[in-house]
Amino acid sequence: MKNLYAIINWLFLVSYWLLIAGITLRIMIKRRSAPSAMAWLLIIYIIPLIGIVAYLLFGELNLGKNRAERNKALWLSTVRWIEEFKECSYLFASEHSEVARSLFQLCKYRQGIGGLKGNQTKLITNTDDVMLSLIHDIGLAKKNIEMVFYTWQIGGLVDQVAEELMAASRRGVCCRLMLDSVGSIEFFRSPYPVILRTAGIYVVEALHVNLLRVFFHRADLRQHRKIILIDNYVAYTGSMNMVDPRFFKQHAGIGQWIDIMVRIEGPVATSIGSIFSCDWEVETGERILSSPPNINITKFEKEASHAIQVIASGPGFPEGVIHQALLMSIYAAQKRLVMTTPYLVPSDDLLYAICTAAQRGVSVHIIVPRYNDSMLVSWASRAFFAELLESGVLIHQFEDGLLHTKSVLVDGQLSLVGTVNLDMRSLWLNFEITLVIDNNDFGKDLERAQEDYISRSRIIEATAWAKRPYWQRIVERLFYFFSPLL
User: Which of 117, 217, 323, 406 is catalytic?
Assistant: First the structure.
């Protein structure tokens, strides 16, 4: 009996160390940043069993077998669509401002498609205005309405949007709605999915979390895009979820969420629609990507035309392109750089680029909320403040709610607006979307919004920050350790 126990113990120990060695090899073989790899290795060696389980759940970008197969099958049709779209050469911008030229060239190389002209954009900074504009556009829809959101929460003006969407479906408009399983968990537990489906709306729960299959696809991979597409010609995107701030997370004690959205008319809507089509096919297996429509841009050619590039990220899309775009934008800045983000946990490259911009004389402003809905991210963000402040970066803490706007404005000309937070999850993991807009008039609109945020913020003084309690520094460094994983 003793020999049997000895053999079992020996087999257990061998299996245990082989498992750790196998996971170590997987971490080292996978292409990832050195800080991320070191963080995973330390977690696995310090708390082995918990660390191994955590890595199997969250350590690798795994779509799951079915989604991965659909993603692979989708690639050839997407390439054909891009080539067909590129034949409409009159849609593509040939001239860009000096600050934007290199970034648009990068996006063209990485994504296979250039920036589009003939677009008319409108920056909407008030949630009620977004909802009312959307309700109006849905009421005019004739062919199709497609939406994807991370969060949809019933209540307030959101219910009016839902009513208008159901009315559109009843009059024959094809309506598709895709919502993230985790972000919209309360919605899927409510009667609303049945109500919308009864009205003829296709409702899909994206990236559904199944406890029985958590080891077969990454559980924390999220559909974080916010897209509305109407008749393949009008589109909305930005930071706003389908929520009414007066009803959303009121118990959190952080105030109402502050967001922006961009309403677009023009060929960029077609590009955004192709991204939705890819997401829809990967999730459902249904192919809805059709040939690019014949688009007339002449009515905007006489006005201020906005050259726009759409950057999409997530599994199946060019890896790291949003990260590259942010780096190029920061290095292109010559006079003024303003960034707004609710979650500031930048990569080492981004941190270095921001600090370098301030050190070479660029006026750099970062606007973050003073109070955050994520304790982990809030503490991790503070670990970066000292280095930023020492470099001359001005950090403004927004005090009038949770500033959820994600934006970058370079020299008043080049704007980046979308769903991407300055953290590892947005930059390397989630399905995200960003608009790159090369237009001075739009830049002025975004600048006004950012100046309004600054007027409602408290600036952090470098001397005062250096005197913060020592225990806070310890907590900051503790959460900084997990920043590559956030």
Answer: 406
